[in-house]
Design the sequence.
């Protein structure tokens, strides 16, 4: 087993540093690293006692699911699990997965998939966890984590920590069933070292995050990165951010955090929900790193945030776009904007194997061109990316293909309770190209479709839809169903308005003269999302076709049992879409 700096804080906690958790109002509750380490030493013996007799097979470390929120209880639970010699597998709290019955089903399914011997949860969730445990095949134990009760127990510093793979994380499941990946200490150390070097992480830096800890960017990039460096960590729950995005930015004012990470949505939501007075009250001059990842990078959305925050001292070169995936621990590439501003190019020809248009010309993101692709930067650490065609052969710079990854951060698949060898290379299932040594990501191959000889990516169509007045502030998703004739479907929660005809005109250009265009509204339910906030397109379309989701047809033919559905699942345009997320 490799000893990791991620564990150093337990034995040698840095004085004057710790964890701030957002409380009520504008309050922040503080826990020093020394205090947090003491709570870990009080909890791990209880975890060990609960699981030691329930291991799935002799010699296999027990798996413990962590159904905990994004606060100090998650950190205490995570490290108590690992130091008890168990594999920790974060699982989203109920708010991310809808109603109680759905959550119980999801949790029971994850228990079965991991062979978990215990579920660690907060006290308010015990009855829900008990229901899931009863439905699971192996009936794991349930451990309620009450920090007040734990604090009264006697600490035990004789920790176990005998495992090679401390973390079992899952892909988001946006294009299929979430898949497990087992992370070793070597994976974690390599990726965190690469991230630290990329961001030039200093002892004076600190991080604020509202990202859920069951998502790789929140868990590894923000939480574990901060603990490895023993720099201050500021935690908000996702629902606190969504309701009051100003709290996130207030934590980035002088004397507080200097770095944060979020998908494009986070910056877009803040710009849309905060008022001019909100931004006028902020001083963001000490904000050093605004990492952007986890979903398609949209230059227009980042620009809107930059414009809204212009009077705060925020600079566009604070954005650090990145590309990564759970199967590679977290980050694969990252951009240092100060080295090459602007960071966008014009949209390439929408065809796998096609050359990029205007390949040598970099465009100013402030120029207002509507269809820009942000660079995701260069590979970090010992990671290597290569763009390959549908036969797996490398393509030239500026040619679109599938992104593959190799390096020490690539994790091992966890399938049916067995840790398999890491793939070489890792086929990500993402399409992109390399230009001047930098990676540009276009979209997911599995949800794309060839229409009239060109590969159409749903992410491209969604970018067009989001520019239509009346849709920009609404949640929407584009689906390219596996029909024999071209079909383009826009699903939204927006009320019918003038935008419908504008959207239909743009969608008709995609579908062609003989294709079908449908615009559907969900009147009673939101668009289903993965725990990391990505739309579950395939699941949504299946529920629409089966009639289990109520819809209102705003444009196009009525949706009965659609004719011409191709057999099998959504058609892929390349032979490998193994990076299911």
Sequence:
């Amino acid at each position: 087993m490799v000893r990791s700096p991620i564990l150093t804080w337990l034995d040698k906690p840095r004085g004057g540093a710790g964890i701030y958790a957002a409380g009520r109002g504008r309050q922040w509750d503080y826990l020093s690293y020394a205090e947090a380490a003491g709570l870990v030493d009080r909890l791990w013996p209880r975890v060990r006692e609960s699981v030691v007799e329930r291991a799935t097979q002799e010699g296999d470390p027990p798996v413990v699911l962590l159904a905990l929120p994004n606060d100090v209880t998650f950190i205490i639970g995570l490290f108590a699990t690992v130091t008890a010699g168990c594999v920790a597998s974060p699982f989203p709290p109920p708010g991310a997965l809808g109603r109680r019955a759905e959550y119980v089903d999801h949790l029971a399914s994850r228990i079965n998939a991991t062979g978990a011997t215990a579920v660690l949860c907060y006290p308010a969730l015990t009855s829900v966890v008990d229901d899931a445990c009863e439905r699971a095949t192996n009936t794991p134990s349930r451990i309620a984590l009450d920090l007040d009760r734990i604090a009264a127990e006697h600490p035990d510093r004789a920790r176990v920590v005998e495992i090679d793979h401390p973390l079992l994380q899952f892909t988001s499941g946006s294009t299929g069933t979430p898949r497990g990946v087992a992370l070793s200490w070597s994976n974690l150390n390599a990726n965190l070292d690469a991230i630290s070097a990329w961001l030039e992480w200093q002892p004076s830096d600190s991080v604020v995050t509202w990202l859920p800890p069951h998502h790789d960017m929140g868990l590894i990039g923000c939480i574990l990165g901060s603990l490895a460096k023993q720099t201050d960590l500021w935690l908000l729950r996702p629902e606190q951010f969504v309701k009051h995005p100003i709290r996130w930015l207030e934590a980035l004012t002088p004397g507080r955090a200097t770095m944060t990470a979020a998908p494009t949505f986070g910056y877009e939501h803040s710009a849309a929900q905060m008022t001019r007075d909100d931004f006028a009250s902020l001083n963001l001059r000490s904000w050093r790193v605004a990492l952007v990842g986890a979903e398609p990078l949209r230059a227009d959305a980042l620009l809107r945030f930059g414009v809204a925050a212009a009077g705060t001292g925020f600079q566009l070169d604070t954005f650090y776009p990145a590309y990564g995936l759970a199967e590679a621990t977290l980050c694969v590439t990252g951009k240092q904007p100060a080295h090459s501003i602007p960071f966008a190019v014009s949209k390439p020809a929408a065809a796998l194997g096609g050359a990029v248009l205007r390949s040598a010309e970099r465009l100013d993101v402030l120029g207002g061109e509507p269809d820009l692709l942000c660079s995701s930067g260069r590979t970090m650490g010992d990671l290597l990316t290569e763009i390959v065609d549908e036969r797996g052969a490398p393509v030239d710079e500026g040619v679109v293909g599938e992104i593959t990854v190799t390096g020490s951060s690539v994790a091992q698949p966890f399938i049916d309770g067995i840790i398999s060898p890491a793939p070489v290379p890792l086929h990500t299932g993402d399409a992109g190209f390399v230009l001047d040594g930098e990676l540009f990501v276009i979209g997911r191959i599995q949800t794309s479709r060839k229409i009239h000889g060109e590969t159409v990516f749903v992410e491209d169509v969604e970018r067009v839809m989001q520019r239509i007045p009346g849709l920009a502030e609404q949640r929407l998703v584009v689906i390219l169903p596996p029909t024999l004739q071209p079909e383009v479907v826009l699903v939204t929660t927006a009320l019918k308005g003038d935008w419908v005809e504008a959207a239909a005109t743009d969608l008709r250009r995609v579908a062609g003269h003989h294709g079908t265009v449908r615009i559907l509204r969900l009147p009673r339910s939101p668009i289903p999302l993965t725990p990391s906030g990505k739309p579950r397109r395939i699941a949504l379309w299946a529920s629409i076709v089966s009639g289990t989701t109520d819809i209102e047809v705003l444009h196009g033919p009525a949706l009965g049992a659609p004719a011409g559905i191709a057999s099998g699942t959504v058609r892929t345009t390349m032979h490998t879409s193994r990076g299911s997320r």
Observations:
- Residues 33-51 form the longest helix (19 residues).
- Confidence is low (pLDDT under 50) at residues 348-370, 561-580.
